[in-house]
Amino acid sequence: MSLGKRSIYKSVCLALALLLAVAVFQRSLTPSQFLQGPLPATLGLQKVQIPTGEHLVNPNDFWKISKGSVAPTHPASRGPQAWDVTTINCSANINLTQQPWFQGLEPHFQQFLLYRHCRYFPMLLNHPEKCAGDVYLLVVVKSVITQHDRREAIRQTWGRERVAAGGGRGAVRTLFLLGTASKQEERAHYQQLLAYEDRLYGDILQWDFLDSFFNLTLKEVHFLKWLDIYCPGVRFVFKGDDDVFVNPANLLEFLADRRPQEDLFVGDVLKHARPIRKKENKYYIPGALYSKASYPPYAGGGGFLVAGGLARRLHRACDTVELYPIDDVFLGMCLEVLGVQPTAHAGFKTFGISRNRNSRMNKEPCFFRSMLVVHKLLPAELLAMWGLVHSNLTCSRKLQML
Ligand SMILES: *[C@@H]1O[C@H](CO)[C@@H](O)[C@H](O)[C@H]1NC(C)=O
Ligand SMILES: *[C@@H]1O[C@H](CO)[C@@H](O)[C@H](O)[C@H]1NC(C)=O
Ligand SMILES: *[C@@H]1O[C@H](CO)[C@@H](O)[C@H](O)[C@H]1NC(C)=O
Ligand SMILES: *[C@@H]1O[C@H](CO)[C@@H](O)[C@H](O)[C@H]1NC(C)=O
Fold first, then answer.
1. Where does the secretion signal sit in this chain (predicted)?
2. Ligand nearest to the backbone CA of 181
3. What is the model's pTM?
4. All domains of the chain, ordered by start, with CATH?
5. Which of 110, 174, 280, 381 could form a disulfide with 377 if both were Cys (CB 3.0 to 4.6 A apart)?
């Protein structure tokens, strides 16, 4: 092929690829179109495409090519421009099975340790466009595929997006973080439903790892890597569970006099927490896995705020720390690498307002109105409490938590 012909061939291919990307883009942004007919088979699972030839544009790069404003460029130390893990290539570390201490562990710890070195998995659902423009606060919610009702309640309440955060600040956007269904028999069915849900709302990030309790740390590292790639300019991140109550107005008020450059990491901070050695506890950790007497300071995973810049540094720091089965403790270990202390704030009640479950305070809207984050509410309770907090509530005194 002559040089001229080759360049024509290249530009035709590029144009075709761009057309394809625009078509995909439009489809994913037009729920009404999607609602008119059945889901075409080819769109059932919006897999991240792996380019089949050099001349094909990776859809992930599309955002970079077409919109200069998508990701503010940070010339210093940029990593990959798109999710760069496309295959699962990780076998069990059978070396461990020879070790006597390993043989004595409970099976789920053995499972964790065998695959501990498998750090990154491919993406199944991605939304690079979430970080287009000026994003002031990115709200990310840990969720699992079966908890559709929780996501729905959050979308109607504290997860509602805002074009502007007020006071000249940028947008507030929301994303849900998911792995795959943990039960084999649930997988195909729920995956289809999730694809529908994502077509409607376009707010799901999904990676190809099992959504199990011990894999929550994987979710943490995957999100931090994602943020570093697709959302480098975001000012602040709120990360929380899908069963908490959040008061976004209070979050935004709290952030109003903070700078995104600060080493801000705020939540319900535990200091000198000891690893739990009682086997029947959900958070039990055998001595073989963590031998020190106490954990570094960490924020309860129910909900915390982190500055965008710090989140990006956390991504790099976490890459140097071995995965730990408890995700919030793991993040504490990453903070320790950076020498950053998480800050405690009384408005984060990730263990409930009162630890006494039957306390009336746990149902008192005036308390919820003054808080930033409260654990733990079922979807119906969340909707009801949200309604109460945003009604003409007369509280005897204004609680000053901020
Ligand atoms: C998977 O890993 C093995 C050994 O680590 C390597 O030889 C192989 O090329 C890898 N395959 C892919 C598709 O990356
Ligand atoms: C297993 O042991 C061999 C030899 O000691 C080492 O080269 C290899 O990296 C180990 N595998 C893993 C997954 O740690
Ligand atoms: C985490 O996910 C990976 C990939 O799906 C899986 O192989 C592994 O068993 C999971 N780990 C745990 C502890 O559930
Ligand atoms: C709340 O109070 C304001 C003024 O007191 C009133 O205008 C408004 O209609 C009330 N809203 C509801 C939902 O009762």
1. 1-23
2. 3
3. 0.79
4. 119-347 (3.90.550)
5. 381
